[in-house]
Every structure is written in structure tokens, then in C-alpha cells.
UniProtKB/TrEMBL annotation:
Record protein name field: Stage II sporulation protein M
Keyword terms: Membrane, Transmembrane, Transmembrane helix
Ranges that cross the membrane: 20-39, 67-88, 95-114, 134-152, 173-193
Organism encoding this protein: Cryobacterium lactosi
Tree of life domain: Bacteria
Length: 207
């Protein structure tokens, strides 16, 4: 029960800040989508980059095996996005995750805007994927904020020194990381199976 309740207790204690961070993360993601809609070359450049670096080829090779596809999606979300843009920078520089991931959310949004009819159909199930995954990112950015605040202002977490404030903030970050991990797992499974089993029937129905 502690595993289930502790992260939600942390969020409830600073709910206003949590909602603001969600607004920032989702807001920059939506700005990226809008930017790609206004400037189509942004989406085209991202698509070309994914084709050139082999990402699209890897996706096609994993498409027939949803469980393996889900594991790859989970690994990409955890390591190339969450760890690289949120967790590791925040362990070194207080609040670094907020501007860094705002930029990352914008680039993800600009790269995910659908540029073809098939991609637009794919966005019907993929919009839920984005909601789940960006909620998980928001939880981590919130954890990074709490770590930075506890580090610079240890009294906010009842710590006498910055070192102890850092350690206690790191504990809160860890609890929130477990909650985010659960969302990432759900998002990876939904993304893999929805792309494999929903997009084609929807395209047959709508196109």
C-alpha cells in the first residue's frame, strides 16, 4: 500500500505546482504540433532524420512482434528521453529538467505532427499514447522540481542542511519515478498494440 500511496501523497502536497508543470510540458508539446502545422518543413525534416538514422527501419522490423516493440518503446522513453533530458541533468543542476524538457517536448510535438492521411489516422489511437507518456514525463519533471527546491531550500522538506535536503528530495524523486515508470509501461504496451492492431482497420474504415 505504501508503494501505491506515497507518490500520490507527494503530488497532493504540491498539487498546484504539479498542475503548472503539466501545463508547461503539455503546452510545449502542443506548441510543437502547432509549429509543425504552420511550418510543414519541420515535420518533414524530422521524418527524414528518422529515416536516415534507421529509426523507421527498426520500427518496421519490430512491427510484427508487439511485445518486443513495446520493450523497445519503453527503453527509448526511459533512457533517451526521461533519463537524458530529465533525471540526469536534475541530479547535477537544480531545476534543469524544466527548460530542457520544455524544449524536448516542443521537438517531439513538431516531429509527431501527422503529414499524411495514414499518419492522421494513426493519431487517433496515438493521441492516447501521447497523453499517457507526457503525463509520465510531467511526473518526472515535477520530481526534478522537488529535488531542486529541497536542494536549494532544505527547510521546505524539513532538512537542516542542503546535503540532507538533496537526499530527501532524491527520495521523493525516486517515489515519483516509480509512478512514472508504471505510466511508461502502460504507454509502451498501448502504443505497440494500437499501432499493430488498430491503425490498419481504422484506415480501412476512414480512408
Amino acid at each position: 500500500m505504501r508503494f501505491y500511496r506515497k507518490p500520490f501523497q507527494i503530488i497532493r502536497a504540491d498539487l498546484r505546482v504539479f498542475l503548472i508543470i503539466n501545463a508547461i510540458v503539455f503546452g510545449f508539446f502542443i506548441l510543437g504540433l502547432v509549429a509543425a502545422m504552420v511550418f510543414p518543413e519541420l515535420g518533414a525534416q524530422k521524418a527524414a532524420s528518422l529515416e536516415a538514422d534507421g529509426t523507421n527501419g527498426m520500427v518496421r522490423s519490430l512491427f510484427e512482434n508487439p511485445w518486443l516493440f513495446a520493450l523497445v518503446i519503453l527503453a527509448v522513453n526511459l533512457f533517451s528521453a526521461a533519463a537524458a533530458w530529465i533525471v540526469l541533468p536534475s541530479l547535477i543542476v537544480p531545476f534543469a529538467a524544466i527548460p530542457l524538457f520544455a524544449y524536448k517536448a516542443f521537438t517531439l510535438g513538431s516531429g509527431l505532427f501527422p503529414t499524411t492521411e495514414m499518419a492522421a489516422v494513426g493519431w487517433i489511437p496515438h493521441s492516447l499514447t501521447a497523453l499517457i507518456e507526457f503525463h509520465a514525463y510531467s511526473i518526472l519533471v515535477f520530481g526534478a522540481y522537488l529535488l531542486g527546491r529541497s536542494w536549494l531550500r532544505p527547510a521546505t522538506i524539513g532538512a537542516p542542511t542542503r546535503r540532507q535536503g538533496y537526499l530527501r528530495g532524491l527520495g521523493q524523486f525516486g517515489w515519483l519515478g516509480l509512478l512514472a515508470l508504471g505510466w511508461f509501461i502502460v504507454g509502451a504496451i498501448w502504443e505497440a498494440y494500437s499501432l499493430r492492431y488498430l491503425v490498419h482497420p481504422l484506415s480501412e474504415l476512414l480512408l
